[in-house]
Amino acid sequence: MIRVRGLRKEYPGGSRALDGIDLHIRRGEFVALIGPSGAGKSTLLRCLNGLATPTAGHIEVDGVEVTGATPETLRRIRSGIGFVFQQFNLLRRLTVLENTVLGRLPHATRWRSLAGWFDPADLARARATLARVGLDGLDTRRIDTLSGGQQQRVAIARALVQAPAVILADEPMASLDPSLAHTIMELLRRINHEDGITVVTSLHVLELAQAYGQRIIGLHRGRVVHDGPPDSLDGAATARIFGPGLAGGAA
Amino acid sequence: MSRPGRWAGGAAIAAVFIWSAVATEVSLGRMIEGLPFMWDFLRRMVPPDPSVLGNALHGAIQTIQIAVVGTTVAAVLALPAGFAAARNAAPPWLFYTSRLLLNAFRAIDTLVYALFFVAAVGLGPFPGVLAVVVYTATVLAKLYSEAIEAIEPGPVEAVRATGATSLQVLRWGVLPQLAPQFLSFTLYRFETNIRAAAILGFVGAGGIGFYVQTYLRLLNYPAAASVLLVLVVLVMVVDFASSRLRARLV
Predict the structure, then answer these.
(1) Which of A140, A185, B116, B119 has its CA at a distance of 20 to 30 angstroms from the CA of residue A169?
(2) One-character DSSP codes across B171-228
(3) Measured distance CA(A67)–CA(A50) in Å, rounded
(4) Torsions phi, psi of A221, nearest 5?
(5) What residues make up the domain containing B209?
(6) What is the pLDDT of residues A49-73, one digit of tens each?
(7) What are the tens digits of pLDDT across the range B75-119?
(8) Is residue B122 a part of any domain in this protein?
(9) Nearest-CB residue to B163 (from A75, A90, A110)
(10) What one-character DSSP code corresponds to residue B46?
(11) Mind listing the pLDDT tens digit for each residue in A190-231?
């Protein structure tokens, strides 16, 4: 599903975010990406859908090369990848339904979507998706009237309505009350199980990664230092990922 | 700031004030001597002459029309100019050129532009419209560009991440963040343009100002009073309506 080879990313000024990543993520996997802040989790996720451009290396999603893709190909690749952001990144003045149906933009009739209309089929699909994430009845509410947990569910609905093969989530819990973490993770797990959508999510809480991830990939300074099922995450592995002082804790 | 520094600053401000007051011949005595004349001026205005209300209304309506056309055209012109003058939307050479030009044009007020356009296209409301357009377009472009610079990049990126085209990203990621502010700025300029257009008539550029100036020059104070009353009501009504509208936009 996702193949990464020799991926490197340097930012102007020489700071190295990714330092040679090789990965193969199979269809239907639920992958938790862990590591201290600055390990390159966000950069890796953003490279996967072309929001960031790597310095070197290759990425293939669903058999299509992301690196060096033309703008049109890149749009097609992105339409098959849902992305959930830490800060939700919703349009706060628009309604829940409007925000959700934006996930259908690549499939919408071009001029209609620019004029501000959506196809009834896409709207129906957005409503159904909102019901699935537990937000029925809130269609016409403006985003800025919702709680953080509800906003993140709208963001998940926006990704889900794309009917993607993959959902990438960048610290989806980090802006939320800890008590909501399980609701959101449970939702991602259901999507993974019921729709067969591959999920790759970065997490900063180790316990969540172990509880929900079927496979845990540990990053440290832009390199993969651990890759295996949750029970393989022993003290030595945690020390490799977070450094000896922080073993067993969160970063 | 240190104590002697504050002292020196205070002394400097006082010196500039006194220097300016002397140069502008400020005199309490002369103002007191003038009081009876002010009173006389006001007394002659009462009662206002209702027979010129027709003229006053005609002038008021023309003032509104100048502001409506001027502000609308200015808003359309300010849209591309605003993007050109936004640091996060334009390449540096375009950004710096646009900012420089906008600041230069904005340094000159509507009334001065009106003098210029009256000389260029002749008397009437049309040069007034042109004057409003030039000044308002530069002011709005500046306000728009600041709103564009304050845009949240996250939602824009999220729309791009769905696989939307650049135009769709602009329509759904950028526009919803800007539209309410742009509308609010434009309405606010419309309010101020009513006041600006009201004095355009003083230089022959149409609107209610023409009647104010004509009646004052003819020493027809009751007629001037009627026109001024219409002007006051006009400004108050527009201010009220526009600020109500703006409050609903945020």
Answers:
(1) A140
(2) IIIIHHHHHHHHHHHHHHHHHHHHHHHHHHGGGTS-STHHHHHHHHHTT-HHHHHHHH
(3) 7
(4) 45, 45
(5) 55-151+186-249
(6) 999 999 999 999 999 999 999 999 9
(7) 999 999 999 999 998 999 999 999 999 999 999 999 999 999 999
(8) yes
(9) A75
(10) P
(11) 999 999 999 999 998 888 999 999 999 999 999 999 999 999
Contact residues, B window 107-136, toward A, CB-based 8 Å cutoff: none
Q: Report if residue B205 sits inside a domain.
A: yes
Q: Of all residues in chain A, what percent carry a pLDDT higher than 70? A: 97
For residue B191, tell me if it sits in a domain: yes
Tell me the shortest Cα–Cα distance from B248 to chain A, in angstroms: 13
Neighboring chain A residues of B161 at a CB cutoff of 8 Å: 49, 51, 78, 81, 83
CATH number of the domain within which B207 lies: 1.10.3720.10
pLDDT tens, position by position, A81-125: 999 999 999 999 999 999 999 999 999 988 899 998 999 999 999
Residues of A in contact with B160 (CB under 8 A): 51, 78
The residue ranges of every structural domain in chain A are 2-80+164-246
Q: What is the band of B1 on the pLDDT scale with cuts at 50, 70, 90? A: low
Residue in chain B lying closest to A98 (CA): B172
Q: Domain A2-80+164-246: which topology?
A: Rossmann fold (3.40.50)
Residue B208 lies in a domain: yes
